[in-house]
From TrEMBL:
Its EC number is 1.2.4.2. Keywords: Oxidoreductase, Thiamine pyrophosphate. Homodimer. Part of the 2-oxoglutarate dehydrogenase (OGDH) complex composed of E1 (2-oxoglutarate dehydrogenase), E2 (dihydrolipoamide succinyltransferase) and E3 (dihydrolipoamide dehydrogenase); the complex contains multiple copies of the three enzymatic components (E1, E2 and E3). It is an enzyme of class 1 (oxidoreductase). E1 component of the 2-oxoglutarate dehydrogenase (OGDH) complex which catalyzes the decarboxylation of 2-oxoglutarate, the first step in the conversion of 2-oxoglutarate to succinyl-CoA and CO(2). One of its GO terms (cellular component) is oxoglutarate dehydrogenase complex. This is 2-oxoglutarate dehydrogenase E1 component. It holds the Pfam family E1_dh. SUPFAM superfamilies: Thiamin diphosphate-binding fold (THDP-binding).
């Protein structure tokens, strides 16, 4: 089984070769070894096998006996198959004993025709479960031990024979019992005790404080340590965790070894960062950390990604970070060194759509991380909601069957079983590089938080919980009965650990952080900008004529043996003319020049989104597809030094945007871009925008340079194809957190992309990208604007040379409407009207705007014109800022006036005639060609 067994398209650098068979073919099907999915054999084959086995054993059997024995063997094999498929339904999983566990009829030998004396007759099994021959009674006893104990395994939905066989070899057979050495058992008990006593200590010291404790699920602690230990032995050198609230503080302390004193300091209201770092901070059960742990001489680096209360939102961020780290460690071919581990709640795993989005990424080219280990803390309740009201499936983990991930259900009161499940899971992941799920059934000893009263809604469950011994008490009694520990050993462990916690508690009172950790490692050399205004000036983003010409050849040369589409051939002819004449450079060419120049300078460039390879509007053509055999050629991958990647993503916004945010956070030396098919499709990822992109730096001190490309512009295409909801991004702007641009010049787009990487800091960049301007005759740039002394312009004047002193009416705007204004102004011969575009809306370019306004000594009217409805767009954001710039320029008392569409519940009309009438009216209003509309 190769590493790309689950990838329908292999990972290729630069060029995708022709794929055998249809593009949607599954290379894991059909099965190649002749076995069917049941593991049973046909009657003829079974008769032959029985006859050979009998002869080998020296038993003479007549044809009738052979037929009878073969029939019994087939029925026995069907019994085995039934246990493999459904044995988990009879597993002892619920520590509280509330879940009904009747043995399904088809798991009984009688159902398969075995009863009475037949139970003690030997049947031929041919090595199944380790038996050549066995009685049905022996077979059933072994099957129930293997499949109906404290671990229930679901894996028969997996198509691949080798994966099923791998799991069967580890769970089937009379000798397959969960075994740990006495020292291993003591270590497991110690980890469970640390988890329990830590929660009790916090509850005692910080009465009434929310901590979302792990109480009831402490078996997770030794299990996660097993992932580190056994993962390290199998090649893992880095683990990236993502998890929600429950048990987070316990994982931070007892798995990731975040110092107890630091956590106690934070519980007392202190910060884990120095006083001069700034930022809003966040509640302690949202925070992350990073550390190293060592087992058996192997060091594993671990990081827990910070996340908000949106329970599963961190999942794609973790996966994106892992993908970036795998690229940095040259681990994309084996996916061996960097492991993603996601910890879920049961209700969230079943209920949140982003869980499926992330599972769907697991085998997709460009997003595959070589399998994720999912650990579900199955409380059997979500806040106050019981499972029957929280999902339609028997288990919270059932969604994972969609990607054929094996699922290990395990009883959380048996820490050995949970640890075994994690050991098996990491071995499976490292072998097959596929997702796997551990579903740990446990309980939540208290309410949703420690101040919540769960008895309001689940009185019977909580009556049972109050009477139920803690995990360590259950396990310690078992170990004492086995003679592994004395009856007092567990109490000594608790006492010693509490003494340590008391010491750390005292140390926490005087704790003071020395430094923040956000500019270490790959981020070394980068820093926080000195201020939002001057730090963005004088960034040298121009390229040399030599590089410009070289990139031109790369972007226009069709390699021998490639037959391009006839329309693409015309596009390339036009590009050659641009480079020959030095004029007419369009948006797509400017973008390719930015990408190519950054790659040539050693940066990585990663672009993903729905149809990003060609471009939604057939503008980009980053990938050239041969018209005869469909092999692909990507010109920018032929450049030396850096790496260029472009991926057509799955049809997801939330998951993919989160993935790219995670990638950008891990690798600041790669320009990471996510492109929406249309701008307002970003609505589907609003959680990522609000909770991570806009606020992640303030909350968690995590800088990020992600670029969002959002097609935006009003062209009569209806409400869903017009607005990227510029107003929402502007409302999020504060504390120099993000950058928002609405760019109209190809050269300016080139410079803003290069600026994103060439500055010594990273901020998310939101660009309202154009649609009609992709090919607009006025939206062109000359070659000189890319070279020598050129740079990004935060404001741009119109194409007509109007002396500032002659300007009486200034129309300020942003985006496509500028060209409508200029065309109409010139057609009307208005020589005292100037149109100035704000290419960057945040950080607001107040200084250059004021400098420009100061030169307009005859200014009488300032208009803000926008295409968007009044309650949308930039008006409410820019109004006061324009007034401040006017005051700074000596025009005190002058205020801007609005010209644009009326407020509207819908972003745009879907009627072409209505759109055109509205557009003509707002342009005329802005230019003073009609009486001013009332505000």
């Amino acid at each position: 089984m190769g590493n790309d067994a689950h990838n329908f398209l292999p990972e290729l650098d630069g060029q995708d070769g022709p794929q055998p068979g249809p593009s949607w073919a599954n290379p894991r099907w059909p099965l190649t070894d002749g076995a069917d999915l049941s593991g049973a054999m046909d009657p003829t084959a079974m008769r032959i096998a029985v006859e050979k086995a009998a002869a080998k054993a020296g038993q003479a059997m007549d044809p009738a006996a052979i037929t009878q024995a073969a029939d019994a063997s087939i029925r026995a094999m069907m019994l085995v198959r039934t246990y493999r498929v459904r044995g988990h339904l009879a597993a002892n999983l619920d520590p509280l004993g509330l879940t009904k566990q009747d043995i399904p009829a088809d798991l009984t030998p009688e159902y398969h025709g075995f009863s009475g004396a037949a139970l003690d007759q030997k049947v031929y099994l041919g090595g199944t479960l380790g038996f050549e021959w066995a009685t049905v009674r022996e077979l059933v006893e072994t099957l129930r031990k293997n499949y109906c104990g404290h671990v229930g395994c679901e894996y028969m939905h997996i198509a691949d024979v080798e994966e099923r066989r791998f799991l069967q070899e580890r769970i089937e057979g009379p000798d397959k019992v969960i075994q740990f050495t006495n020292e291993g058992k003591k270590a497991i008990l110690g980890a469970v005790i640390r988890g329990e006593e830590y929660e009790k200590f916090l509850g005692k010291k910080y009465v009434g404080t929310k901590r979302f404790g792990l109480d009831g699920g402490e078996s997770m602690i030794p299990a996660l340590e097993a992932v580190i230990k056994y993962g390290g032995a199998m090649g893992v050198r880095e683990i990236v965790y993502g998890m929600a609230h429950r048990g987070r503080l316990n994982v931070l302390a007892n798995v990731m070894a975040k110092p107890y004193r630091v956590i106690f300091h934070e519980f007392s209201g202190g910060s884990a960062n120095p006083d001069d770092v700034g930022g809003s901070g966040d509640v302690k059960y949202h925070l992350g950390t990073s550390t190293d742990r060592e087992f058996d001489g192997i060091k594993v680096h671990m990081s827990l990604v910070p996340n908000p209360s949106h329970l599963e939102a961190v999942n794609p961020v973790v996966l994106g970070k892992v993908r970036a780290q795998q690229a940095i460690h040259d681990d994309l071919s084996k996916h061996e060194k960097v492991l993603p581990v996601l910890l879920h709640g049961d209700a969230a795993f079943a209920g949140q759509g982003v869980v499926w989005e992330c599972l769907g990424l697991s085998g997709v080219r460009g997003y595959n991380t070589g399998g994720c280990l999912h650990f579900v803390i199955n409380n059997q309740i979500g806040f106050t909601t019981s499972p029957q009201f929280a999902r339609s499936s028997p288990y919270p983990s059932d969604v994972a069957k969609g990607v054929q991930a094996p699922i290990l259900h395990v009883n959380g009161d048996n820490p050995e079983a949970v640890t075994f499940a994690c050991k098996l899971a990491i071995e499976y992941r490292q072998t097959f590089k596929r997702d796997i799920v551990i579903d740990m059934w446990c309980y939540r000893r208290f309410g949703h938080n420690e101040g919540d009263e769960p008895g309001f809604t689940q009185p019977l469950m909580y009556e049972r919980i109050r009477a139920h011994d803690r995990v360590s008490e259950v396990y310690a009694k078992r170990l004492a009965a086995e003679g592994v520990i004395s009856p007092d050993d567990a109490d000594h462990m608790r006492y010693d650990f509490n003494a340590l916690l008391e010491q750390e508690f005292e140390a926490g009172k005087g704790y003071k952080a020395n430094e923040a950790d956000w500019f270490g490692g790959r981020w070394s050399g980068l820093h926080k900008p000195a201020d939002p205004e001057t730090a963005r000036r004088n960034v040298d983003t121009a390229i040399s004529p030599k590089l410009f010409e070289s990139l031109g050849r790369t972007l226009t040369t069709i390699p021998e043996g490639l037959t391009v589409h006839k329309t693409l051939a015309r596009v390339l002819d036009a590009k050659r003319e641009m480079f020959a004449s030095g004029t007419g450079f369009d948006w797509a060419t400017a973008e390719a020049l930015a990408f190519g120049s950054l790659v040539s300078e050693g940066f990585g460039v990663r672009l993903s989104g729905q149809d990003s390879g060609r471009g939604t509007f057939s503008q980009r053509h980053a990938i050239w597809v041969d018209q005869k055999d469909e092999h692909k050629y990507i010109p920018l991958t032929t450049l030396p030094h850096g790496k260029f990647e472009v991926y057509d993503s799955v049809l997801s916004e939330f998951g993919v945007l989160g993935f790219e945010y995670g990638f950008a956070g891990a690798d600041p030396k790669t320009l990471v871009m996510w492109e929406a098919q249309f701008g307002d499709f970003a609505n589907g990822a609003q959680i990522m925008i609000d909770q991570f992109i806009a606020s992640g730096e303030a909350k968690w001190l995590r800088a990020n340079g992600l670029v969002m490309l959002l097609p935006h512009g009003f062209e009569g295409q209806g409400p869903e194809h017009s607005s990227a909801r510029l107003e929402r991004f502007l409302q999020l702007c504060a504390d120099d957190n993000i950058q928002v641009c609405n760019i109209t010049s190809p050269a300016n787009y080139f410079h803003v992309l290069r600026r994103q990487m060439l500055r010594p800091f990273r901020k998310p960049l939101v660009i309202m990208t154009p649609k009609s301007l992709l090919r607009h005759p006025m939206a062109k740039s000359d070659a000189a604007r890319f070279q020598v002394d050129s740079h990004f312009m935060r404001i741009l004047s119109d194409k007509t040379e109007i002396a500032d002193a002659k300007v009486e009416r200034l129309v300020l705007c942003s985006g496509k409407v500028a060209y409508d204004l200029m065309e109409k102004r010139d057609a009307e011969g208005l020589e005292n009207v100037s149109v100035v575009r704000l290419e960057q809306l945040y950080p607001f370019p107040g200084e250059p705007l004021a400098a420009r306004l100061q030169k307009m000594t005859g200014l009488k009217d300032v208009i803000w014109c926008q295409e968007e409805p009044k309650n949308n767009g930039a008006w409410f954001f820019v109004e006061s800022r324009i007034e401040q710039a006017l005051t700074a320029a000596g025009h005190a008392g002058m205020r801007p006036r609005y010209a644009g569409r009326n407020a509207s519940a819908s972003p745009a009309t879907g009627f072409a005639k209505t759109h055109l009438a509205q557009q003509n009216a707002l342009v005329a209003d802005a230019l003073g060609l009609t009486p001013a509309a009332k505000a």
